[in-house]
Design a protein that fits this description.
Length: 131
């Protein structure tokens, strides 16, 4: 199995945020990586998943092993819900900076001072709409 060494599969990262009525908590999950966080409010869930993805993507790039980052994506059902939410709600778009030794090589190739990727966050059911 060959390693994926491009950021193409990570730009943009897609995140779905939804209120879980059973546990009464917000859940944010990245579709490509499967990374998941929970928080008491939607804004905190978005902040936490953004920080987590910046760290995890930077580590994968540093180790030149993006394929391991993509080994456990979110279920297909979540991808469908992201697409539906993206069509009906405004996306929350954020940028994350990629850090690490490999990123320096990418900077030279891309002609940019910093390497970034985008996160597009779609919000599904919220606490107000879940009631």
């Amino acid at each position: 199995m060959s390693k994926i060494t491009t950021l193409q599969l990570l730009d943009p990262l897609k995140v779905f945020v939804e209120y879980d009525t059973q546990y009464e908590i917000y859940v944010a999950q990245c579709l490509q990586t499967g990374h998941l966080v929970t928080a008491d409010d939607a804004d905190m869930a978005k902040e936490m998943i953004t920080e987590l993805l910046e760290d995890e993507v930077s580590l994968a790039v540093k180790n030149n092993d993006i394929s391991s980052l993509l080994a456990n994506p979110a279920p297909l059902e979540l991808r469908i819900r992201w697409e539906l939410a993206a069509r009906t709600n405004k996306l929350d778009e954020r940028k994350i900076k990629i850090h690490g030794e490999v990123a320096q090589e990418l900077r030279l190739l891309m002609g940019q001072a910093e390497v970034e990727t985008e996160i597009k966050i779609a919000t599904g059911r919220t606490a107000a709409r879940a009631a």
